[in-house]
Specification:
It contains 17 helices and six strands. With 424 residues, the chain is mainly α. It folds into three domains: 48 residues, Rubrerythrin, domain 2, CATH 2.20.28; 205 residues, Orthogonal Bundle (Citrate Synthase, domain 1); 106 residues, Cytochrome p450-Terp, domain 2. It binds carboxymethyl coenzyme *A.
């Protein structure tokens, strides 16, 4: 029940009392659902000031640069937790006891293999298909294997679907890569950690032993952790919208992968590296900064800016520290890094970026780390999709667990009014 109200005066002069709700933290929210019976909708393209749901999973304060999962800060999780523990937290709402963690890791590890028939799907993809295209198709195809066996109204079935998704995404992601380079798929290894197993499936071959470097394993786990969830972003909202129709969760996650792919969202980490390649050398940076500032030029500095963070991206801070650590440990010499560091310095001191509160976001640094550990650029967004799967499925589960309606936005129609069909 709302204890506050907002009063809205309609064009007719009639006033309407709208309930105002307070969350645990964050701004109050005006409930406009009652406007419909007065004959009005609200209009908010891009959902800049629209809350689509009540949620208990993740909180972001964009002005203060705060990101909390179930109340724990992303900085604390990055320091004290690991990816699978964060998955447990997002799904179940609490940090696991050591026994719960061990059981969860066991459950995930035992679901990493795929139905052998799924491997044949890859034969249909051309070798140079973009890995995100293959990922959309392959994850959607999972719904063909787990459809009749799952009832989305059953909490246990939803939990098994979540375990399957978290477990199988790295296997599928590595298969996309292996297909693109013509190497045999590597079966998952249950004795390795989540991150190490992924690296093994990516870079191992049947011909020789592949040993995962602990520094790279740590960096990979941190990348997974930092991307695990981000509240009601475009891809999560897509998964929720698809899920609100009662669709199969594997199909919903495939829809989320499609939404993530765009360069304004998850595709930004790939776009950052392509941009660094395009800039090429430090002396070219001023030209690209001018292009980014030109309102008539569509060019944007990839990895800069965020819809919600208008001060700094807390994930970027952790990612930058991680990137410094990895680069030092791996002794990577990559000319793109010089360009990236100089770009960051110039952009941060340029009033255009300061005035618009444009700061490097998580993808600016994740692209640099992924490149340093040898991940091909086209796989960057796939790795984001692997990480974000737990966020997508946790929000889907939260929605299905309480009463919900099919998501169905309205519109401000500005087309032709009804007109007669011309007679000849
Ligand atoms: N380079 C140059 N100018 C920019 C940039 C940029 N990266 N981002 C925003 N602007 C300008 C924009 O042109 C506008 O200027 P003006 O007010 O003069 O018209 C102003 O800043 C406000 O931008 P906006 O487009 O209204 O902001 P938004 O909140 O709608 O967009 C964004 C946010 C992330 C889509 C956008 O900043 C962007 O396209 N950034 C580059 C892509 C990127 O790095 N995306 C990854 C986001 S983090 C990962 C994730 O969570 O998905």
């Amino acid at each position: 029940m709302a204890d506050k109200h907002a009063t809205l005066t309609l064009p007719s002069g009639k006033t309407v009392e709208l309930p105002v709700y307070s969350g645990t933290i964050g701004p109050d929210v005006i409930d406009v659902a009652g406007l419909l019976k007065e004959g009005y909708f609200t209009h908010d393209p891009g959902f800049m000031s629209t809350s689509a749901t009540e949620s208990r999973i993740t909180y972001i304060d964009g002005d203060e640069g705060i990101l909390l999962h179930r109340g724990y800060s992303i900085e604390d999780l990055a320091e004290h937790s690991d990816y699978l523990e964060t998955c447990y937290l997002l799904w179940y709402g609490t940090l696991p006891t050591p026994e719960e963690k061990a059981q969860f890791v066991y459950n995930i590890t035992r679901h990493t293999m795929l139905h052998e028939s799924l491997a044949h799907f890859f034969d249909g993809f051309h070798h140079n298909a973009h890995p995100m295209a293959m990922m959309c198709g392959a994850v959607g195809a999972l719904s063909a294997f787990y459809h009749d066996v799952m009832d989305i109204r059953s909490q246990r079935d939803r939990e098994i679907a979540a375990h399957r998704l978290v477990a199988k995404m790295p296997t599928l992601a590595a298969m996309c890569y292996k297909h693109s380079i013509g190497q045999p798929f590597m079966y998952p290894r249950n004795d390795l950690s989540y991150a190490a197993n992924f690296l093994y499936m990516m870079f191992g071959t049947p011909c020789e032993e592949y040993v995962v470097s602990p520094a790279v394993e740590r960096a990979m786990d941190r990348i997974f952790l930092l991307h695990a969830d981000h509240e009601q972003n475009a891809s999560t909202s897509t998964v929720r919208l698809a899920g609100s129709t009662g669709a199969n969760p594997f199909a919903c996650v495939s829809a989320g992968i499609a939404a993530l792919w765009g360069p304004a969202h998850g595709g930004a980490n790939e776009a950052v590296l392509r941009m660094l390649d395009e800039i090429g050398t430090v002396d070219q940076i001023p030209r690209f900064i001018e292009k980014a500032k030109d309102p008539n030029d569509p060019f944007k500095l990839m990895g800069f800016g965020h819809r919600v963070y208008k001060n700094f991206d807390p994930r970027a801070k952790v990612m930058k520290a991680s990137s410094d650590e990895v680069l030092a440990e791996l002794k990577v010499v990559d000319p793109r890094l010089k360009v990236a560091m100089e770009l960051e310095r110039i952009a941060l001191s340029d009033p255009y970026f300061a005035d618009r509160k444009l700061f490097p976001n998580v993808d600016f640094y994740s692209g640099i780390i992924l490149s340093a550990i040898g991940i091909p650029t086209s796989m960057f967004t796939v790795i984001f999709a692997v990480s974000r799967t737990i966020g997508w499925i946790s929000h889907w589960h939260e929605m299905i667990s309480s009463p919900y309606k099919i998501g169905r936005p309205r519109q401000l129609y500005t087309g032709e009014a009804q007109r007669p069909y011309p007679s000849n």
